[in-house]
Amino acid sequence: MRTPFLFLLSSLLLTLLSIYPSQGSDDHKCDFPDHDSTLPVMHIYSPCSPFRPPKALSWEQTVLDMAARDEARLQYLSSLVAGRSVVPIASGRQLLQTPTYIVRTKIGTPAQTLLMAMDTSSDVAWIPCTGCVGCSPNVFSTGKSTTYKAVGCQAPQCKQVPNPSCIGTLRKACSFNLTYGSSTIAGTVAQDTFKLATDLVPNYSFGCLSSVTGSSAPPQGLLGLGRGPMSLLSQTHNLYQSTFSYCLPSFKSLNFSGSLRLGPVAQPIRIKTTPLLRNPRRSSLYYVNLIGISVGRRLVHIPPSVFAFNATSGAGTIIDSGTVFTRLVTPAYTAVRDAFRRRIKGATVSSLGGFDTCYTVPVRAPTITFHFTGLNMSLPADNVLIHSTAGSITCLAMAAAPDNVNSVLNVIANMQQQNHRVLIDVPNSRLGIARELCTK
Ligand SMILES: *[C@@H]1O[C@H](CO)[C@@H](O)[C@H](O)[C@H]1NC(C)=O
Ligand SMILES: *[C@@H]1O[C@H](CO)[C@@H](O)[C@H](O)[C@H]1NC(C)=O
Ligand SMILES: *[C@@H]1O[C@H](CO)[C@@H](O)[C@H](O)[C@H]1NC(C)=O
Ligand SMILES: *[C@@H]1O[C@H](CO)[C@@H](O)[C@H](O)[C@H]1NC(C)=O
Ligand SMILES: *[C@@H]1O[C@H](CO)[C@@H](O)[C@H](O)[C@H]1NC(C)=O
């Protein structure tokens, strides 16, 4: 069932890997100073991104590629179960994702800059290291860092990785590997100083990759913002108290204009919040309670059972930074889509790939509001519609959850979060959302 899709995905990744240019754009506009505990965030396709495709893909191709990658991500999200999501190294499925937003981190002493994928639904920190066979050219040079150290076999972190084994004779290093289909990823568990904006995090544990075969590993490191035991949140608990917020710029944004703000300082105070729910079986995911959806001012008739949180089945709603287009379980999506179509009178509906509500004439989208317990998130047209650059086609940027996957999970995705500040406050079990224009 998954094979054609994986093939498509692998080809896409191969393309990304083969075009990966040397990092560090000459363009000074892409140099952004760090300040306080705030990291600049950019879209993978933005002009400052070294991961963007060299030639502009056609708009349709870009959208279809992003939608195709979403399918893999939804499979990954549904595969998360307790025990697997706490390892610091990606499980096979996680490696199949390509990221959509990246942040700049500095690692080692003296600091080396790396762009890492930001992912709120995983706990992983992994980095391509010196001599990595099959990784992108931009690796972390372990030998140039005076604070780098391998994590020994006896360390507790070594019990968290898949297939751990001990290498070396004197001070045995903890190595690991994992395979997925025809891809194998191997590395060692290591520690070094992370510099996040202006904050130093000494002895941060991560997976230091030494070889990648096959075509399914994305070229950059991954910075998981989930809340498992080895996650960034856990490793920096004293510094950031499991609190962060982010604002994702539109993917049309020309530079690093979004932000990832770590820690409780400088977070919005009067932001409306909704309770953050915890699912022990899917411990890294940020579940919230979606209770209704309005199109225009009208509440769409959707039975509440469609949204109900169930820790056993995984049903409910998550806020995810890595999925591009919001997915709603079929009965909810169908009802929202029908209400939306009724508001666009007289225009013929067409489709594009997985999007079933597209128009070839200009349309005015009604606001779509997600009602969460205690919080309404109202989406203006920019978060509701995707337009082709030529303006010839416009689609409702949401879809039904794929039936072959976990059809019980609603995913509020990054296209809908763009230009909003999303606050994750784990100690107070709350998630805030407020409109904020962070696209320049
Ligand atoms: C971001 O890009 C915009 C448009 O190219 C430019 O006007 C702005 O100065 C850039 N921001 C920074 C901080 O360089
Ligand atoms: C992966 O690790 C296991 C256990 O240490 C080892 O037996 C196996 O040969 C390794 N596989 C690869 C492909 O490196
Ligand atoms: C980091 O590790 C080094 C050596 O293992 C140790 O001396 C140092 O105290 C550690 N630093 C912190 C802040 O834990
Ligand atoms: C939650 O899901 C499980 C497994 O699908 C099901 O057996 C149970 O009845 C559900 N609980 C509720 C309250 O619906
Ligand atoms: C959310 O919107 C609904 C319907 O418009 C309204 O009744 C409710 O008071 C709003 N809730 C908040 C917290 O603003």
Number of helices: 8
CATH class value of the largest domain: Mainly Beta
Q: How far do the termini sit from each other?
A: 41 Å
The CATH level-2 architecture of the largest domain is identified as: Beta Barrel
* Total individual domains: 2
**Main pleated sheet:** 6 strands, mixed, barrel
The portion of residues forming beta strands comes to 25-35%
Mean pLDDT: 80
Fraction in helix? 10-25%
Bound chemical compounds: 2-acetamido-2-deoxy-beta-D-glucopyranose
Low-pLDDT runs: 1-27, 81-97
What features would you highlight for this structure?
single chain; 440 residues; alpha+beta; Cathepsin D, subunit A, domain 1; 2 domains; 6-stranded mixed beta barrel; 4-stranded antiparallel beta sheet; 28 strands; 34% strand; disordered N terminus; binds 2-acetamido-2-deoxy-beta-D-glucopyranose
